[in-house]
Amino acid sequence: MDHFLYRNGVLHAEDVSLAEIAAEIGTPAYVYSSATLTRHFRLFDEALGDMPHLVCYAMKAASNQAILKTLAGLGAGMDVVSGGEYARARAAGVAPDRIVFAGVGKTRAEIRAALEGGVRQFNVESEPELQAISEVAVALGTTAPVTLRVNPDVDAKTHAKIATGKSENKFGVPIARAREVYAEAARLPGIAVVGIDVHIGSQLTELAPFEGAFRKVAELTETLRADGHDITRLDLGGGLGIPYRNSNAAPPLPFDYGALIRRTVGHLGCEIEIEPGRLIAGNAGILLARVIYVKEGEGRRFLILDAAMNDLIRPAMYDAWHDIVPVTEPAPGHERSVYDIVGPVCESGDTFARAREMPEVAAGDLVAFRSAGAYGAVMASEYNTRPLVPEVLVKGDHHAVIRARPSFDDIISRDTIPHWL
Ligand code: LLP
């Protein structure tokens, strides 16, 4: 459920008309709903209920500080994957003991910054990384709290580019080698083991792969405890999918996911962390665009929008489906048409949808890409020197630009010309 509904014939974000936002700041633009962000965070928080837990929002999904502040204000922690995300979370006022630091390639500079600024834990992905963290911690006269990310060799049954839990993926330590690596961690002077981490992939539409992974983690917890390790925290990652297509069967709900966590690892008495990104932000954001031209091609009709692959890369990158709807509510019995929906960028990959049936629209009309809140703005680029797409946050009848559209001068003036030119 989200808060993008038609009212008086116009699509609204909560109580604000998207037509008004477009008139004020132009298109393309991302628009987020605070109420949807809030609702989705709470669903997770409540799903873990009485278990000691922290929901660490995977801020890679949508990392504007206004979004981070909205979620942190509800009690969210953050899952960060780079020094930049760490700095951004801190700038948004997130307390260091609510930040978990993930990623296969943490540099020593990133590790140092997080240890100096404070961090809840590092989710460690390899032995060389463990070694590096220990050395940096010792140099700073401290110890680093860590979980080890184990790779459970579970098929997440999702798109290959976002599956992470199979042994061929670059992520984590093979679960079969976990005891060995934990033993090494225990010997390292700068390391304090606090738990286990697992994340098997993103946009999972079934619970079964989670169940397989969590059962393996439960078993490993008992084994490691028997080996003398103090396992008090289980970070179970993110990955719960969202419905991108109206017609799709609904993916599992956070409530059922919470029940699964309770059933598989609840008896261990560990503090539970989860790292949802997409389910919190995905349906809390839309990409607003305008039709520039309707072009009649050979046997097909192109809808050429002012949004492009640089603003929303998911269709080009993962063949992802986003519902695309007119901002003006189609009248009962309206005409429908079949379009190839494309952007203005100079390559055929700049296609959002092929042979998509939707209500007929005309040049100048506004459309909205639904479910674009996660992995939308954060993956945008300035390809074709198109200004980085702006963002707007709505709350009730308030709205605010939370990232302004840069001017051409802003973009161009970032280049510096060497003295010999
Ligand atoms: N934790 C870890 C360690 C992750 O790698 C990810 C996502 C998450 C949590 C959050 O997963 P979520 O709840 O959002 O599924 N750009 C792709 C998705 C990449 C996901 C990367 N890792 C897309 O647009 O589909």
UniProtKB/TrEMBL annotation:
Superkingdom as given in the UniProt entry: Bacteria
Binding annotation for substrate: R278, R314, Y318, E347, Y375
Molecular-function annotations in GO: diaminopimelate decarboxylase activity; pyridoxal phosphate binding
Reactions catalysed according to its record: meso-2,6-diaminopimelate + H(+) = L-lysine + CO2
Positions annotated to bind pyridoxal 5'-phosphate: G239, E275, P276, G277, R278, Y375
InterPro entries cross-referenced by the UniProt entry: Ala_racemase/Decarboxylase_C, DAP_deCOOHase_LysA, De-COase2_C, De-COase2_CS, De-COase2_N, Orn/DAP/Arg_de-COase, PLP-binding_barrel
N6-(pyridoxal phosphate)lysine: residues bearing it: K60
Record-annotated Orn/DAP/Arg decarboxylase 2 C-terminal domain positions: 30-373
Alphabetical UniProt keywords: Amino-acid biosynthesis, Decarboxylase, Lyase, Lysine biosynthesis, Pyridoxal phosphate
Cofactor: pyridoxal 5'-phosphate
Residues in Orn/DAP/Arg decarboxylase 2 N-terminal domain copies: 36-281
Protein EC: 4.1.1.20
Record flagged with keyword Lyase: yes
Active site, UniProt feature: C346
Metabolic or biological pathway: Amino-acid biosynthesis; L-lysine biosynthesis via DAP pathway; L-lysine from DL-2,6-diaminopimelate: step 1/1
Gene Ontology BP term (one): lysine biosynthetic process via diaminopimelate
Principal EC category: lyase
Function of the protein: Specifically catalyzes the decarboxylation of meso-diaminopimelate (meso-DAP) to L-lysine.
Subunit structure, as described in the record: Homodimer.
Stored PANTHER family: DIAMINOPIMELATE DECARBOXYLASE (PTHR43727), GROUP IV DECARBOXYLASE (PTHR43727:SF2)
Family of the protein in this entry: Belongs to the Orn/Lys/Arg decarboxylase class-II family. LysA subfamily.
Name of the protein described by the UniProt record: Diaminopimelate decarboxylase
Source species of the chain: Roseivivax isoporae LMG 25204
Gene (name only): lysA
